[in-house]
Write a structure and sequence with these properties.
two-stranded antiparallel ribbon, 12 strands, Rossmann fold, 40% helix, 10-stranded mixed β-sheet, 3 domains, 364 residues, Isopropylmalate Dehydrogenase, alpha/beta
Length: 364
């Protein structure tokens, strides 16, 4: 019986990457009925919205989507479509494997780095509870801050201070930490590290650490430890091979997932999964790279590997293994790869996005 999957083609280089990933997933032989949907800057120019109603309707129906990159304006413009999808669909767990593949250049190529970032997706500063400078509500909050501040040396300015609220709940923390431990157990992982800033943020990150310890006690077969987030960054830069599964609040998870991706060669090889009780959305962790739109140049690996994660989610483990093996083989051979995977980025033998996808299909 065919799986129903929404394919969100994105903008910028998104449609090219979506076509490549779809081709590779189909080449595994798994039967999928794709419902292609547009979202992002390109469709906004035609419809007035970057996220047409049909996209949400499709994902709610199929409960599974493969999403190509979508542009997020910086500072102005519409809110992140990625964040909206996670929150609207209750996709509370972001899982981002960062694995060293032979043939991918990095300073850690000699180490067996195989990290998994498990990031809480719906709380923390990404809840979007913000108050702009000069707003009456901001002024009231500033009065509260000034009254309760532990330091009298610096007073905030009501007309020049913006405020964002960081919220960490016991319920949200418990489900993401439990997700990390269950992932570790299901995938033969040995250790979970809870990452926080509880030495400073005692009632938000302190709660995250407290609940992490409580959940860890339910999984005696999995080693548990915790790290302060700034120290965790140093640890990853020094000895990433010592870590396995990291579980983090939203903001730290976003930052450290890019750091971990850099350790294994960059966002071009970093897939991602967003999972909740009502469905899942699989996506590359990189952006839409609009300057390369239509050039058939960008690396399709991250979205293809996201398709691999999707196949695992759908229970198609053997097909997922074959797809990952084919990706690893093509990269290791180094012949039919995009320019960023060549030893010399100006190597004239570099192939395009679609040609690399074709090579991966052939390797299966």
């Amino acid at each position: 019986m065919a799986h129903e999957v929404t394919l969100i083609t994105g903008d910028g280089t998104g449609p090219e990457l979506a076509a490549s990933a779809k081709k590779c997933v189909d080449a595994t032989g798994v039967a999928i009925n794709w419902d292609e949907q547009e979202a992002g800057v390109d469709v906004m120019e035609r419809t007035g919205t970057p996220l047409p109603d049909g996209v949400m309707e499709s994902v709610r129906r199929t409960r599974c989507a493969l999403k190509a990159p979508i542009t997020t304006p910086v500072g102005t413009g519409f809110r992140s479509i990625n964040v909206h999808l996670r929150q609207a669909l209750g996709l509370y767990a972001c899982i981002r494997p960062c694995k060293q593949y032979e043939g991918v250049r990095s300073f850690f190529s000699h180490l067996p780095v195989d990290l998994v970032i498990v990031r809480e997706n719906t709380e923390d500063l990404y809840a979007g509870i913000e108050f702009e400078a000069g707003h009456p509500e901001t002024a009231e909050l500033i009065d509260f801050i000034d009254t309760h501040s532990k330091s009298n040396k610096v007073k905030t300015g009501k007309e020049e201070t913006g405020i964002s609220i960081k919220a960490i709940s016991r319920t949200g923390t418990e489900r993401i930490v439990r997700c990390a431990f269950e992932y570790a157990r299901d995938n033969g992982r040995k250790k979970v590290t809870s990452v926080h800033k509880a030495n400073i943020l005692k009632f938000s990150d302190g709660l995250f650490l407290e609940v992490s310890r409580q959940v860890a006690a339910e999984f005696p077969d999995i080693e548990f430890e915790d790290r302060i987030v700034d120290n965790m960054c140093m640890q990853l830069a020094q000895k990433p091979e010592l870590y396995d599964v990291l579980v983090l609040p939203n903001l730290y998870g976003d930052i450290l997932s890019d750091l971990a991706a850099g350790i294994v060669g960059g966002l071009g090889v970093a897939p991602g999964a967003n999972i909740g009780p009502e469905g899942a959305v699989f996506e590359a962790t990189h952006g839409s790279a609009p300057k390369y739109k239509g050039l058939n140049k960008v690396n399709p690996t991250a979205l293809i590997l996201s398709g691999m994660l999707m196949l695992r989610h759908l229970g198609e483990t053997e097909a997922a293994d074959r797809l990952e093996g084919a990706v690893a083989k093509v990269i290791a051979e180094g012949k039919d790869v995009t320019y960023d995977l060549k030893a010399d980025r100006d190597d004239p033998t570099a192939v395009g996005t679609q040609e690399m996808a074709d090579a991966i299909c052939a390797a299966m």
